[in-house]
Structure formats: structure tokens, C-alpha cells
Amino acid sequence: MSNLIFHTHPSQRLQGQLRVASDKSISHRSVILGSIANGNTRIENLLEGEDVLASIRAFQAMGVNIVRNIGEHGPVYTIDGVGLDGLRGPDQDLDMGNSGTAFRLIAGLLSSQQFASTLTGDASLSKRPMSRIIEPLTQMGAIIHSAEGRPPLSIKPCEGLAGIRFHSPVASAQVKSAVLLAGLRASGETRFIETAPTRDHTETMLAGFGYPVSVSGAEICLEGGHALTATHIQVPADISSAAFFVVAALIVPDSRLQLNDVGMNPRRTGILTILRRMGADIRIKNTRMQGGEEVADLVVSSSELAGCEISGDDVALAIDEIPVICIAA
User: Fold this and answer.
1) Per-10-residue mean pLDDT for the chain, 329 residues long?
2) Strand locations in 224-305 (E)
3) How far, CA to CA in Å, does 180 sit from each of 3, 20, 45, 199, 230?
């Protein structure tokens, strides 16, 4: 395969409107929860990247019928959910590729199943620490074997988990999600206390599927044994992907860009707070709710930016956007 060579030239201005790629975090969770819901879940604007496709293949290997069709505005996925107790043991290892999100969330879900499973990944994923999910899942009663806390994970059949109250030593939406997903089939209540605010897509989407979840400050609580009801999901555009176009429009003179359908989850909009503090002209319009998530269109105009201080709390809400913030600076 020949090498690709890209030539770039300075732009005089940026004008127009676009929709960036869909949100990967929400795409993963749509597939996971749709697979264990009762009924047919319809997903529009699913991100068709390799990470999300790894989630789809994993649930297909566990007996979930997932069909891709072409709708009026692009691909539409229909998932025939099998319910909380309907997954079946896979005939082979579940390869998560390079997706840490899929690996950790699906590990949490599988820890309560009455069949054995093994989660693997590529060379890069195999170096990542999994002890942070193994510890709380083991406390709940899961039987998990690993390669010194790293993939692959071998999850043994489980007769039943018990809910725990877990105070996470790390701020991680993936750890939180793994524990909450394990709690869906656990006895009693599962309580997760966050060290710092993290993305809340899992608890938001669980509520969108009709599963009762309570949030009190830093503590998220759910009781095992309830059912998820299939729903219709429109995955919003990813604010992390939109951030690059936002900054480009801000620093290129005489620019005006409109970015449509951007996810505006309050745990993800730290990038906008920081840029506005720097003097950015960013207007938010057409705000609405889609599947429990706030979505809006962003209108960005070129601006004279000034430096500002970024606190630890700011970083927690803009962790993926720090590189592009540095470009703006």
C-alpha cells in the first residue's frame, strides 16, 4: 500500500456549517444497553468506527441480532434486545480491538453472567491496567482472572453478584460504568461514589431505557433486577471532534462556522467554558433533548483570544480537549 501524502495550505477564512462525527461514548452505550433491553432499539447516527464495531461484534457473538439498514439520513441500526438474562455464552474470545471503553464496560456486564467469557484486545490494549475494574467487580462476587491486572480477562460463570458501596480511588467514567452495569443483575443496591465528576452518559442512558437510577451529589445508586425497555436513540455529534473546528474558526480571521447537533452534556462542555473565558465568540442555539442528552447547534466566529488560568475542575470537564485548547492558547 502506497503512502498517502497530504498537502495543506493556509485558509483565508472558514465559512459554512457541518456535522462532525457522532459521539463514541454514547454509541458504545447505545449498543450495550440496547442489547440487554426488552424489545427493538433503533439507533440513528451511530459512530461506525472500529471501536464501536467491536462492541457490535461482541454482542452478536452473544446471540443478539443487530441489523444495519440505510435510512433517509444514513445508517440505522436495529437491535433486537434479549433482556438482562438473555445473553448466551460466546463460542470464542471477545476481541475488543483497541477499545478500552468497550473492554471495561462489557467486562462489568459479563461479570454477573452464568457463562464463561474471555475478553481480549490488541497489543496496545493488552498493556492497559484493568485492576481498577477487577477490584470492585471482585468485591461484588465476580470471578476474574487476568494477566497481572491486564488483558486478557477470563470471567468465570457467576451464581450471583451482590451490590456494594464503592468509593472509587480514581475519577473514571469507565470504572463507574463497569460497576453500574454489573449492578444490573446484582442483588440489592449498588452505590458508586465518584472522586470527581466524570461523564454521566451511562446513568443518563439507563434512565432513558427506563431503568431507575438515583444520583445524589457524587453518589450514583441503582438496584439490581429491574428491566430496560427498548427506545429510539439519535446519537449526537461528538463535542471532542467539534472542538477542533471550533478552535479553527476562532483563530482564522473572518471565520464563521455552525456545528450542528453537538452533544452538550454538562460533564463534557468544559472546552466551551474555557474558550469563552479566553474571549471566544461561541453562540449556542436550537437547544433540545435527544434520548436524555442535551444537544445544540454552535455558531462560532473568529475572536481575539487571551490567555486564562485552567483549574483542576476545568480539566476534569475537558480532559480530552486539552491539546486543542493548547492550540487556541
Assistant:
1) 79 93 97 98 96 98 96 90 97 97 98 97 95 97 95 94 96 96 98 93 96 96 98 96 97 97 95 96 95 93 95 84 93
2) 232-234, 256-263, 281-290, 293-301
3) 44, 30, 25, 13, 19
Listed in order, strand segments (DSSP E) in 121-247 are 144-147, 150-155, 165-167, 189-193, 213-216, 219-223, 232-234
DSSP state of 127: G
Residue among 195, 28, 212 at smallest CA distance from 108? 28
Nearest to 267 by CA among 327, 194, 192, 325: 194
Asked if 142 and 111 touch (Cβ cutoff 8 Å), the reply is yes
Q: Which domains does the chain have, with CATH numbers?
A: 24-233 (3.65.10.10), 236-328 (3.65.10.10)
Residue 251 neighbours by CB under 8 Å, 6+ apart: 302, 305, 327, 328
Which pLDDT score is estimated for 43?
Answer: 97
- pTM score of the predicted model: 0.93
**What is the length of the chain?**
329
H helical segments located in 168-238? 173-183, 201-208
Burial class (CB in 10 A: 0-12, 13-18, 19+), 59: buried
pLDDT for 126: 95
Q: Which of 80, 122, 281, 320 is catalytic?
A: 320
pLDDT given for residue 3 in this prediction: 82
Is there a catalytic annotation at residue 313? no
pLDDT of residue 147: 86
Strand ranges of the sheet holding 15-18, from the earlier edge strand across to the other edge: 15-18, 256-263, 293-301, 281-290
CA distances from 235 to 27, 40, 313 (A): 7, 16, 27
Enumerate the β-bridge partners of residue 225.
Answer: none
